[in-house]
Amino acid sequence: MKKTLAPGVVGEARHRVVTENLVNFRKPDAPPVLATPWLLYVMETAAYQAIKPHLDEGEASVGTGFHFEHLAPTPAGDTVVAVAKVTAVEGNRVTLELEARDSHEVVARGTHVRAIIDKRRFAQRLKKKVR
Does domain 10-127 have CATH number 2.60.40.10? Predict the structure, then answer.
């Protein structure tokens, strides 16, 4: 990991909400709003984008912890923009503050922890679990 990965580094992700992202796509009796797992995905992508330019060859980042609140609904057709800001780097652990907005308001806030891993060692570890 490069020394440039430090508090203050920011990443962003944008996602236009489509029908397949709505809660009622799989649950017809639910409201037609952005499903929480999709919102979580957009926020995690922002965190990934913050870290990615600061990785060395052979490294990757993986999520290890998440705490967030889904604060407001977002309909299909709107765009969610998530911003992730690095707040701490401790060893191979990176903590980020997250905020997501649609065109009207903040729809989610939270914190996310990612670990910087060696891809080769990670693949070896995973291989032991795959038969």
Answer: no
Rounded to 5 degrees, φ, ψ at 54 are -105, 10
Q: Is 97 exposed, middle or buried (0-12, 13-18, 19+ CB in 10 A)?
A: middle
Tokens 């992700």 appear where? 13
Residue boundaries of the structural domains of the chain: 10-127
Run of H or E including 124 = helix 119-127
Question: pLDDT digit string (tens) for 63-109?
Answer: 999 999 999 999 999 999 999 999 999 999 999 999 999 999 999 99
Q: How much is the pTM?
A: 0.93
List residues bridging with 86 in a β-sheet. 96
Place of tokens 């052979």: 58
